[in-house]
Amino acid sequence: MTSLSKSGPNIEILIGKARDGHDLSREEIIQLLKMPEDHSPALFKAADAVRKEQMGDEIFLRGIIEFSNYCERNCLYCGLRCGNSKISRYRMTIDEIVATAMQIKSMGIPTVVLQSGEDSFFSAEIMVNLIKRIRAETGLIITLSIGERSLADYQAFGQAGANRYLLKHETASKDIYNYLRPGCKLESRLQCLFNLKKLGFETGTGNMVGLPGQTPEILADDLLIMKILDADMLGIGPFIAHPDTPLGGLDNDDLELTLRVLALARLITRNTNIPATTALGTLHPQGRIMALQAGANVVMPDFTPEIYKSRYDIYPGRADIGSAKDIMTKLQIDFSFIGRTILYSVGHRQK
Ligand code: 5AD
Ligand code: SF4
């Protein structure tokens, strides 16, 4: 008997168990991460069924504005790291950010994601004013993705009208975290996530797949963190090597494994909002569509003005180049091919 046929029925039973909403142990998650590739379609199908049952067939859109590419951190994987002197830095003005938010609203998209590097130029006071202006002038739901801040800052952002916060834990391995994010601590990041949850933010976490030294065991721990945190949104994307970083030159061949982690995240967390990440679309022309058929239900088109967009160079070759209108038209065509439509509503997580 080959190892494949030995693992066959067992794996099918496990996938069925996950699809039906039974908890998976860490060992079972590891088994599904390691299973032979010919079982992947069954895993993706199960995740797609749970996505349909829990979230429906509509895709939620979030419009992203990358308003500053300054970053005070020096993460080894990221093009925005302060040690990258090749990047041309920018900060959008408050008026530019509000005008871009208006554009997102005019497309019928109800939520905006304000994203930046860790840039203390945007102090709590500046952020509070920005949040208040966007709320007053557009009524958009606001998601922040601006890194680690104090509890007091998070509280101020919430009081000003921000509703959601994205802060990926990046990796569950302390060793890899310490190596890749010099001067940062995984415990501090998790503390920020707990603070955000406690303050009532819809909170997003997530990881990168394909980091050096990452194992299936570590990926299983990533999935367990997502579950234990009871995160509302999960961003799961492949690591893509950036040539102007210390990790330049590493391979980017983790499409299949990223989709597997995403599918498992859907099966384990059930009713979370999971984007088909831009990084997946960068790795493969059909990457986002594949993710939407393996558990994802959210797409986050990039509305950063053209003059800045290419300078938000986290990793090379990012998808979504073009005007807002072009991006929307292309998405609508892509979605219709797989029988999905866009839902122009807020898309809070239903508990
Ligand atoms: N490849 C993929 N994703 C990356 N990020 C940063 N650098 C890379 C990279 N090289 C992601 C991280 C972070 C966000 C800013 O972008 O997950 O949360
Ligand atoms: Fe800065 Fe985030 Fe990039 Fe790290 S991953 S360098 S914190 S933007």
User: For the terminal residues, how far apart are their CA atoms?
Assistant: 45 Å
* CATH superfamily heading: Aldolase class I
Class derived from helix and strand content: alpha/beta
Any guess at the CATH architecture? Alpha-Beta Barrel
Strand content: 5-15%
List all distinct small molecules, including ions and cofactors, that are bound in this structure: 5'-deoxyadenosine, iron/sulfur cluster
In what order do the strands lie side by side in the largest sheet? 2-3-4-5-6-7
- The sequence of SSEs as H and E is HHHEEHEHEHEHHEHEHHHEHHE
How many strands in all? 9
Give the CATH topology: TIM Barrel
Query: According to CATH, what is the class?
Result: Alpha Beta
| Low-confidence spans | 1-5
How many strands, which pairing sense, and closed or not: the largest β-sheet?
6 strands, parallel
What's the number of structural domains? Answer: 1
What does the average pLDDT come to? Answer: 93
Helix content: 40-55%
User: In angstroms, what is the radius of gyration?
Assistant: 19 Å
Mind explaining what this structure looks like?
The protein is α/β, with parallel strands linked by helices. It has a single domain, classed as Aldolase class I (TIM Barrel, Alpha-Beta Barrel), CATH 3.20.20.70. 45% of the residues lie in helices and 12% in strands. The chain is built from 14 helices and nine strands. The strands form two sheets. Strands 2-3-4-5-6-7 form a six-stranded parallel beta sheet. Strands 8-1-9 form a three-stranded parallel beta sheet. The longest helix has 17 residues. It starts with a helix and ends in an 8-residue tail after the last strand. Bound molecules: 5'-deoxyadenosine and iron/sulfur cluster.
